[in-house]
Amino acid sequence: MSFGDRVRAGLSATGHGVVAIGLGLLNGPVLALWLVGLVLSPVPMLGVDLLHITTMVVRWRADIERRLGASAGVPIRRPYRPSPDRAELGSRRWARWIITDPATWRDMAWLLPGSVVGMTLGVITVAVPAYGLVGVVLLPLWLFLGDVWFGYGVFWPTATVLEAWSAFPQGLILVAVGLGVAPLLRRADMLFARLFLAPTKAAELRLRVAHLTTTRADAIGAQAAELRRIERDLHDGAQARMVSVGMTIGLAERLVRRDPGAALKLLAEARMSNTAALVDLRHLVRGIHPPVLAERGLEGAVQALALHLPIPVEVTSHLAGRLETPIESAVYFAVAEALANIGRHSRAGSAWVRLRHTERRLFVEVGDDGVGGADATRGTGLHGIERRLAAFDGTMMISSPSTGPTVMTMEVPCALSSPRT
Amino acid sequence: MRVVIAEDLTLLRDGLTRLLEAFEFEVVAAVDNGPALLPTLLQHRPDVAIVDVRLPPTYTDEGLKAAIAARTAIPGLPVLVLSQHVEPLYARELLTASGRGVGYLLKERISDVEQFVQAVQQVAAGGTALDPEVVSQLLSRREPLAGLTPREHDVLKHIAEGRSNAAIAAQLFITEKVVSKYINNIFSKLGMPPSDDDNRRVLAVLRYLDA
């Protein structure tokens, strides 16, 4: 870390120290508010709503601390249980959800100690460099104010001019130490907060299990649906056509001596059916695993997709190798859906796709200059993308203000295999 | 006419050889993998090469890459690429260097033997033969080329598929004279100077692909 970086980090940590003092002052009132909410919660009608609101205030305060933690290099994850379905929202369920979540009580337990630790460390963080700063400017101040001899640092009271001079280096050292230590103090504060505000091992596992259960069910459901679709397509398409080819050839066989002309016609018909069967198979294969994806990987396949759109699509890609096949396929279909949406709804004049792989994560951006207004909670297609990616712990975000443009960002943790030779 | 075939499936390779020999082509070599293709082509210098896109050892687009490499090594070598599926992306890559003597067809087109043989001859003669499927995929995605009437667009589509004026006339139920009038309109609308007709046809197709 360069000197400049250290100074910047120190200054930013000192700034956060000031914020921490202010936030620490909030903790007491927030706790009092929640306790009032808890005491009043049995009151019919309003009680539960009040508890809900006060709990949200507590969580808002804790979330601020988590965000500060992330900025200080101590990420703190949210531990709360998922809220019950709003449709079956009964006041008793709400209360139970809040009261039985251990995270609620851990938030409470943190509020006062957190305030004490946060404010103490905050004061130290701010005070040391501030006192150092005083030392640095003390001498000119003295000379300006005249013979007002106080004292500074190790010389107290200051007796001689030499001792007064020594305030300057002392002050410099204190500023340096203060700024150097400030990030560590911030970190210590956040580590303390993490003891309370991060999910416990049990809560973490519970969240993970809940996530895995949903995504597994989705993945299995999607796979079963896909197999059913393939079976139906084969049955109604290629298979049926091949049956008809067989019948037609059989008929032609019987006719070939008696009526060669008719037999010839039948054979031509058989050839047509055969071609139609191949068309069906080709479409089916494209839907299962597009050949261009197998041949060119994600980059080439996305470029091929781009050519199918009626507007120019710029594809930029920085992938140093191939992805694992299942992920490649999921991302391909996600991009295909996104591009299809652009073609259908966006009224865009141009679009772009960016592929990038850093720190064991694949980032995909699909954007256009169209009208916007895409909503992930509505379209089934977008929801399908989300579910497809979720099976790989991937996420999708969409930014689409009603004035446009739309940018869809997908992120999937995955490894990159070495480039093909 | 001398032909080199690159196809990994024995059944198809032998069938293709038999079919071409029945039409008086001479199959001078048939290889079953990508890496062997270029040396074979350099050795035999055939009039046309018929290449499958997916070949060993990678079973990806080995054949396409080999075909493009061969056209760099032997400029003007006519190549007819066959595949189980068609991609406009591949068509564009094949046509980038030069549109002369390039064909890109679905394998199933072989079943219409006469038309297939015609396409092989067309490519060998320096023409272009794109699969109707590629052409229709390109057609469906783009707005009609600037200023072309629907009828002119139809004619351009048939040119891209490698049809002769006579064939286009038969297909569209018009006379050859009308066809060549349409074609002249297309050329002038695409801003192509008068020159050797065959070359302009190819240029029109390239313009069409790049639209």
Task: Please supply descriptive tags for the structure shown above.
heterodimer, A: 421 residues, alpha+beta, five-stranded mixed β-sheet, two-stranded antiparallel sheet, 7 strands, elongated, B: 211 residues, alpha/beta, six-stranded parallel β-sheet, 10 helices, 53% helix, globular
Structure description:
- The complex is a heterodimer of chains A (421) and B (211).
- Chain A is an alpha+beta fold.
- Helix content of chain A is 68%, strand content 9%.
- Chain A has 11 helices and 7 strands.
- In chain A, strand 3 and strand 4 form a beta hairpin.
- Chain B is globular.
- In chain B, 53% of the residues lie in helices and 14% in strands.
- Chain B has a 6-stranded parallel sheet with strand order 2-1-3-4-5-6, sandwiched between helices.
- In chain B, strand 1, helix 1 (10-22) and strand 2 (26-31) form a beta-alpha-beta unit.
- Classes of the chains: A alpha+beta (421), B alpha/beta (211).
- The A-B interface holds A 271, 274-275, 278-279, 282, 285-286, 291-292, 294-296, 300, 303-304, 307-310, 420 and B 53-54, 58-61, 84-85, 87-90, 92, 106, 108, 111-112, 137, 141-143.
